[in-house]
Structure formats: structure tokens, C-alpha cells
Design brief:
Layout: E1 2-12, E2 19-28, H1 31-48, E3 51-52, E4 100-101, H2 108-121, E5 126-129, H3 141-150, E6 161-165, H4 170-176, E7 182-186, H5 192-197, E8 200-204, H6 208-211
Helix pairs in contact: 1-2, 3-4
């Protein structure tokens, strides 16, 4: 059975005004079902991201080998039809690996339920900010670190920091990309793996409207 829970976040801003923002999320009442949903969503994401690039050519795909090396009878040697036979050096490969893309499907409601559950469980590790303000016109890592320090986040203290914004601008992306333990994603691309890895989550106030799953 699904129940609707309300999450109230305190919004942090530069003026230190006390504001709050509320979102409603659907989660499962049963904890076992919650874990099952998260597990299924994670497996689905990992499988869809998997690609096997190893690729070998069969005798029909190897270039050349159109001419019969010698006549069928009368030479005393074994009969052969092509120099690209798998028995020959430079020939094709029998039962070799082929490039494969793996796909799996999960229902949209089930995926949303898993994301909602993680957001609810990680609300104590979540910070809401009015906006991420980069003061410089050009992208600077130093400016990005100052922005995080203003909301009391020490970058060296955490292994993984997830920042969720409404729109990933070029200025934001270039400012944060050199910081190895920070992942910057748009709210519409929110996923299970990013939420699970994150030790602390920073969400902009504007992106909460997108996250607010009905």
C-alpha cells in the first residue's frame, strides 16, 4: 500500500532568513517493498548503462578471401575455399564476442516510487538552497567552492556530494567539473544511483517543483 508523506526542508540563503519548502512524495508503507523497489530500479539503471564493446569478425566479415587458394583436387593438399577460413591465420573467429547493448524495462511509477523513498530516507542529509550563485562571469572552481562554503558544506569532508539544479548551465558545469567528489545533475535526470552514492544532497529551490512527484 502506498502512502503520501510530506517532507519539509529548511531553505538556506545568503541573508540567513528562515524559510521552508514542502514537497509531497509517495512511498510504500512496507519497508521490504521499499528496498525491493530501490533494488529493481538500481538493477535496471546499471543494466541499461552496460555495453559490451568486444567485437570479432566472422569469416564473412573479414576483408578479402574471395579467391579459392588452389584447385579442389590434384594438389595433394587439403581442400580449402577461402583464405579467411577460421582455421587460417588472418581468418575469421568462430563464436567470438560480438558488440552487445543490454536493455531492461521498469515501470515509470515504480521508478518514481524508488526515487521518492530515497528522498524521504535521506531528508536529514539534504540541504535546500535558494539558488547556486556563481559570482564570476567566467567559470572558476574557486568561486564554486566559495558558494558551497556559504551554505556550510565542506567539500573535503564528504566522498560524494550531489547537487541538483533546474538547469545545468555552462557556467555551473565548468565551475564544478574539476571537483572530483561533486556530481551536478538536472532535476529531470535524477536517478537512483546518484542518490544512493550521495553522502549529502544539495537541491536548489527551483528544482524542487520538478522533483515533487505526484
Amino acid at each position: 500500500m502506498k502512502i503520501i508523506k510530506t517532507i519539509t526542508y529548511r531553505v538556506e540563503n545568503e541573508e540567513n532568513e528562515i524559510k521552508s519548502e514542502t514537497i509531497r512524495v509517495k512511498i510504500s508503507e512496507d519497508k521490504k517493498k521499499q528496498m525491493y523497489c530501490i533494488h529493481r530500479s538500481l538493477k535496471n539503471q546499471l543494466k541499461n548503462g552496460r555495453v559490451r564493446n568486444a567485437n570479432t569478425k566472422t569469416r564473412s566479415e573479414v576483408r578479402g578471401g574471395g579467391k579459392k587458394p588452389w584447385k579442389q583436387k590434384g594438389t595433394g593438399r587439403a581442400r580449402v575455399g577461402s583464405t579467411r577460413s577460421p582455421l587460417w591465420k588472418g581468418g575469421g573467429v568462430i563464436f567470438g564476442p560480438k558488440k552487445t547493448t543490454y536493455t531492461s524495462k521498469i515501470n515509470k511509477k515504480e521508478k518514481n516510487l524508488a526515487i521518492s523513498t530515497l528522498l524521504y530516507n535521506k531528508q536529514s542529509k539534504t540541504k535546500i538552497v535558494d539558488r547556486l550563485l556563481i559570482t564570476t562571469e567566467k567559470p572558476k572552481t574557486k568561486s564554486a567552492l566559495e558558494t558551497l562554503n556559504n551554505i556550510n558544506i565542506e567539500v573535503n569532508k564528504y566522498k560524494n556530494i550531489l547537487i541538483i539544479v533546474e538547469k545545468k548551465t555552462k557556467l555551473l558545469y565548468l565551475s564544478f567539473r574539476n571537483i572530483c567528489n561533486i556530481e551536478l545533475i538536472e532535476a529531470k535526470n535524477l536517478n537512483i544511483l546518484s542518490l544512493l552514492k550521495a553522502e549529502i544532497i544539495v537541491i536548489t529551490r527551483q528544482s524542487l517543483k520538478t522533483i515533487n512527484i505526484k
